[in-house]
Amino acid sequence: MAATTTTTSAGTSRGAGRGPARPGGSRRRRNAVTAWLFALPFVLIFGVFMLGPLVSSFVMSFTDFTSRDIENPLSVGFVGLDQYTALFRNPQFLHSVLNTAYFVLAGIPLTTVLALALAVALNSGITRFRTAFRVGFYTPVVTSIVAVAVVWRFILQPDGLLNVILGWVGIAGPDWLNSTTWSMPALIMLAVWRNLGTLMIIFLAGLQSVPGDILEAAQVDGANAWQRFMKITLPMLRPTLLLGTVLLSVGFLQFFEEPFVMTKGGPLDSTLSVSYFTFNQFGFGKYGLASAASYVLFIAIALLSLIQFRALRSKD
Amino acid sequence: MLTERKKAERTTAGGPRVPAAPPGPARRRRTGRPPAHRALTYAVLLVAVTATLLPFAWMFLGAFKTQGELLRRPITWWPEQPTLENFVVWFTELQIGTFFLNSVVVAVFTVLGNLLFCSMVGYALAKMDFPGKRFLFLLVMVMLMVPGVVTFVPLFVLISKLGMVSTYPALILPFLAAPMGVFLMRQFIAGIPDSLIEAARIDGAGELRTFLRIVMPLCGPPLATLGILTFLGSWNNFLWPLVVAQSEEMYTLPVALSLYSTGQNATDYGLLLAGSVLVITPIILLFVALQRYFIQGVAATGIK
What we know:
The complex is a heterodimer. Chain A is an all-alpha fold. Helices cover 72% and strands 0% of the residues of chain A. In chain A, helix 3 crosses helix 13, helix 8 crosses helix 10 and helix 12 (274-283) runs antiparallel to helix 13. The radius of gyration of chain A is 26 Å and the shape is globular. Chain A starts with a helix and ends with a helix. Chain B is an all-alpha fold. Helix content of chain B is 74%, strand content 0%. Chain B has helices at 2-14, 17-20, 24-31, 35-62, 67-71, 85-92, 96-127, 133-143, 148-161, 168-172, 179-190, 194-202, 207-218, 220-236, 239-244, 253-262, 269-289, 291-301. The longest helix of chain B has 32 residues, at 96-127. The chains are: A mainly alpha, B mainly alpha. At the A-B interface, helix 1, helix 2, helix 4, helix 5 and helix 6 of A face helix 1, helix 4, helix 7, helix 8 and helix 9 of B.
């Protein structure tokens, strides 16, 4: 049965014998129409609510569109690259770029190392409570950032829970959210806490695909645990590591909710991100500038994804 | 690449030794860690998981404390006089029922839309030939990388032109068919043997019948994954509802919580903590009940 199935599928899948008789062209065309009918609901939603806005945003970034032009779009003027030059002359925007870079460059390595350590720990010799641990580490992922930000704001108060705990080991904690130095580390801490679970699950799946017999063979050959990890597990995990970190960076680049709920971008713009800058410009009605800023972010994300695809392909 | 080959060699080199070694169980025991290592691993994990869950414990305990106790220093752990007052305010003064209903309506329609539309286009992309197919798939892949902040300005202009600001369609329509879902369904349906579909066609079933009777019943696992991920995304979605739900009766739970937490109630921590508890409890209960599928979904798609 299985054998027949495979042959049939191999023999007929590529158009050679679609049905007993071959009515030819009209049949093909009818198939194409059916296929497009199946795709239609998606294509409509996609076109109107995703692709359309994506293109409009691009066009808008070359205009001086403001909230007042909604009523009369014909009054909008084309300004070419002016929005982009204005953007890169805007100190607040440059500040937001630096903040976003800080957030990504500090947050990603921290999350990756911690997630890898936890995944390795969960994958080694642990048999009991494994599910409970996994669920525990993953819980922050499923919860609304807005809701957990509320409790974190409370924890991060000068005399809040975190500083009480730090006090136990003799550290005098800062006023996290009101300090230009410590506001960003505080938000990074929150982001690491919230994203650890996702990355850990991805790494765990990767670790489970490292063949045990290779590790055993290495052990028989006298490699210790650290050597086995560095020489076998880590190289085999490279694609997973890459995938995980790039997905995470794409998320981190869009950094918005944490500063929105925790600090409103402050103090003194120290936690203003590019997404937040875009949101603010939108709020001021400067749609052209907001679109330009969002396209800068999009290009950064696209470049990162491109690097990912390249790196993954060169692995094969 | 090189390392893999080296490893392969090592395996073959190690190969002949395998029969010489005692079978399975004895060897396994030797590879196991000594008890001290295991205890250390458990200890590290226990500390880490406690640290991870501490904010939740703090949130739940705080929600039952009075404002006075929350502001008192040094901090207290257990509520000294547990009170339901914070929750009562949400239910009596702040219409949390409305916000909850809004979140549920938006999530349910978003999930249903995604399950249906993503599997339909996924079927077409995986099993049918049509002009423009490759281009459509390319567009879907590109759209996967577009950050939400890029589309929301024109989307808002569109929605206000259509007169839909502060309506359910505004909250639902843009998320009714996500590119991620299309990708997921297409990948799964491509794995269904062509012969099954050919057989149905030869038996005279039309495409719709084949789709509903053959393809959909086989799609349980990816539909479950997609449904859960979509529900999660919808329940926690923030930026778009914040922009488009401009009247209080259209707030979803996160929007309501964020606006109350930055408005005049900003320092009423008891109220905010109780609100947080109300927002996350449904999703945590759902997660604990279906955790296996949640986690499989992440491992399968690599996307939150």
